[in-house]
Amino acid sequence: MTDKKNKLRSQAWFGKPDKDGFLHRSWTKAAGHPHDQFDGRPVIGICNTFSDLTSCNSHFRTIVEYVKRGVYEAGGFPLEFPVMSLGEAQLRPTAMLFRNLASMDVEESIRGNPIDGVVLLMGCDKTTPALMMGAASCNLPTIGISGGPMLNGKFRGQDIGSGTGVWMMSEMVRAGTMSQEEFTEAESCMNRSHGHCMTMGTASTMASMVEALGMSLPENAAIPAVDGRRNRLAQFSGRRIVQMVKDNLTMDKIMTRHAFENAIKVNAAIGGSTNAVVHLLAMAGRIGVPLTLKDWDDLASELPCLLNLQPSGKYLMEDFYYAGGLPALMKEIAHELHTDALTVNGKTLGENIKDAPCYNRDVITAYEQPFKPAAGIAVLKGNLAPDGAVIKPSASSPHLLKHRGRAVVFEDTEDFRARIDDDNLDVDENCIMVLKNCGPVGYPGMAEVGNMALPKKVLKKGITDMVRISDARMSGTAYGTVVLHVSPEASIGGPLALVQNGDMIELDVPARRLHLDVSDAELATRKLNWKAPEKPERGYVKLYVEHVQQAHLGADLDFLVGASGADVPRESH
Ligand code: FES
Predict the structure, then answer these.
(1) Would you say the CB of residue 56 lies under 6 angstroms from ligand 1?
(2) What distance in Å separates the CA atoms of residue 225 and residue 195, rounded to the nearest whole number?
(3) 348 and 406 assigned to the same domain
């Protein structure tokens, strides 16, 4: 055993000759592991979010075997452990409510166990930020592997994208241009393989963020889930994490301010989800990198989108991979990036992308001829959102980016569902729909309900977009002129709570302004009459609403910001 090996934290469990060492080794040996596995070789914890309830991660039992293969090949000892899995399609009231809970599970599972390095298996939307946040709080050598996107959806000869197709076709059913039978048939045609949503939704966005941050091997973001090269990447990642432990290549050496700046710029270039804003802010908070909502606008709002992918464009993730994937796209914007940023393979980002070929300029456009100009996320401020709100101009209708309209207010999602298709609802396409009480505290969990469906009577006129404003989030697969993450939220008495039917609202995205045209005196009177909604009385939800931060800070729990490292001085018995 070398001195270097003796320094591994797992040896504080497995390297002791006394009764404690006996306990730790003996119970592990029960699974058949031979004694030499405890000789000081790196112990790699593989954090697995497999669950039958998280269908996007349904193939992780296969992927984990390739990771283990790679770890063994490199002389490490792999130990897989499960953590809470967050399935976007099933979890009520919203998977986002449990992102922070899952991150605590990850953090404590890593810290409390004999683990020297970590492999994160991530896929469905919230599994990626939850695992990255939890691991960052421990700051061990860590490598990310995404599950990869599903194959393209195919319906009656057309490509259809997960999420995006649902929003579009459900509006068609409501407008009477698609039958219920066709709609039901599309269910089996849209999601037809393992993997996460194959549009540039939150899962694809966050997989791209992991790669842009340097936290995965190159190509991680786009290899389809069922492509053999996904398994190969898992095996290579298993080999690599062993060396990362030997080199003590901890997360803080990779997730620097420059790495986050790269990720924000890449998010603009891929037309990424607005959800990346809250997730990256929360991740930065855990690793100790100063990052603000304003950084998103300052760094990247003027950058072009180069990727012609749904929901902003035409193609899907499978096409992106065949066109060259994220390395090819990052090469196009290399002059905007910190190419000296270190990545998990020990090379710089610049070294990883310098020879990346692009095979399809219709999918990944050239920087000089971008798919969409100035497409980054814009941060709005004004008396309606004193701490900020966000909008994705690339998914908006250009004619609505500067708009003044009459507010049509919904107090919550129940109110919205009850009245949206009421013929007596006083609404037309020039109105601005306002949805309250869907923020972190209000929903609770800041659900993806900000992309409110349009009123039937507006849809029937052939209108496909209206300005919508809320304290909610929006699925990354959705589109429209949708102002999100209004902070402070309505449920804690933010100005959004005070908007009434008939108020005039001004949206001016070029000027970054969101203004409620009501006098300060009138707003003060309304505030006096405002009553806070009741809060949950027990369980995790009580803890959550008492401690969750507002969207502009990343919606993490206040006591989780910062990191605790991985030291645990006390023995278990
Ligand atoms: Fe899992 Fe879309 S539902 S990524």
Answers:
(1) yes
(2) 5
(3) no
Residues 78 and 177 in one domain: no
- Per residue in 209-234, pLDDT (tens digit) is 999 999 999 999 999 999 999 999 99
Domain count, the chain: 3
The ligand 1 atom at the shortest distance from the C-alpha of residue 88 is: 3
Do residues 330 and 424 share a domain? Answer: no
Looking at the structure, tell me whether residues 437 and 454 fall in a common domain: yes
How far does the centroid of ligand 1 lie from the alpha carbon of residue 167, in Å?
14
Ligand 1 pocket mutation pick from 50, 52, 53, 56 by most atoms within 8 angstroms of CB: 56
| CATH number where 52 lies | 3.40.50.2300
Q: Does the residue 572 lie in any domain?
A: no
Whether residues 274 and 404 share a domain: the answer is: no
Ligand 1 pocket check for 478: Cβ under 6 Å: no
Q: Which ligand 1 atom minimizes the distance to the CA of 89? A: 3
Q: Where are the alpha helices (DSSP H) in 18-88?
A: 19-29, 60-73
Distance 158 CA to ligand 1 centre (A): 21
Nearest atom in ligand 1 to the alpha carbon of residue 162 is: 2
Question: Is 569 domain-assigned?
Answer: no
> Does residue 28 belong to any structural domain of this protein?
no
**At residue 186, what are phi and psi to the nearest 5 degrees?**
-65, -25
**Would 552 be classed as within a structural domain?**
no
Residue 153 near ligand 1, beta carbon < 6 Å: no
State how far the Cα of 200 lies from the Cα of 179, in Å rounded to an integer. 27
The predicted-structure confidence for 270-321, as pLDDT tens digits, reads as follows 999 999 999 999 999 999 999 999 999 999 999 999 999 998 899 999 999 9
* Residue 129 burial by Cβ neighbours in a 10 Å radius (0-12, 13-18, 19+): buried
Find the 53 Cα to ligand 1 centroid distance in Å. 11
| Residue ranges making up the domain that contains 408 | 378-534
Residues 440 and 510 placed together within one structural domain of the fold: yes
Q: Beta-strand (E) ranges in 353-443?
A: 378-382, 385-391, 402-410, 432-435
Instruction: Determine the Cα–Cα distance for residues 240 and 244; give it in Å rounded to an integer.
Output: 6
Exposed, middle or buried: residue 559 (CB in 10 Å: 0-12, 13-18, 19+)?
exposed
139 and 172 assigned to the same domain: no
Shared domain check, 320 and 395: no
Q: What is the pLDDT of residue 393?
A: 87
Rounded to two decimals, the pTM is: 0.96
For the chain, list residues with pLDDT below 50.
Answer: 1-6
